[in-house]
Amino acid sequence: MLSLAGRFLLTMSSSSEKAPLPDKNENREDVPRYPPVLPREIKELFANFGYGCLAIEADIGVIHICHASDSDIEGFRKKNVVSRWQLVKMPTAPLVRLKLVILDRPQSPYLFESFLNISDEDQANVLSRLASQELLYLVLFGDDLEYRYTKVIPQDFNHWQLIDDLHAQALEYLGNIPEEQRDFDRAKADFMNRYP
Asked: Is residue 162 part of a domain?
């Protein structure tokens, strides 16, 4: 699975910017006034690595760009999304993992996942912003890497507190790894090999 976090200029101003926040457990779908266009660098990543998810900063906050097949994306409509945060302590680096589970098929729901590297300044900023963001955005792009729609998931104080706690734990764990042994890419590759 692809994962990357950073700063790209992506405008996501929404046609429902002034709409009330969703109820605590309500997901909604949103269509921006001007559909976003992926930067060339992100298109190249998806072209090289296939379907996946990455977190970036945009004008509305942190968004998760999700690339999936057109048929899967159509199946996501009006389906709830559950977000699950986890700290994975690998020998060479901590991984802050976000699993986005789309409840489209009861026996095998679709999973997007994103990993953040807290020793990378841009990715640490993404995590910090997520720790206070009221909404989680899944911006869906199809097979042709053209925008389809955005799923909007409400976040609350419990989510923010969990992210803050994971961030602090990850920093503490990273501090115990000798600098010459730190390697986020290796940690992620090892994790993906163990849990494909």
From this structure: yes
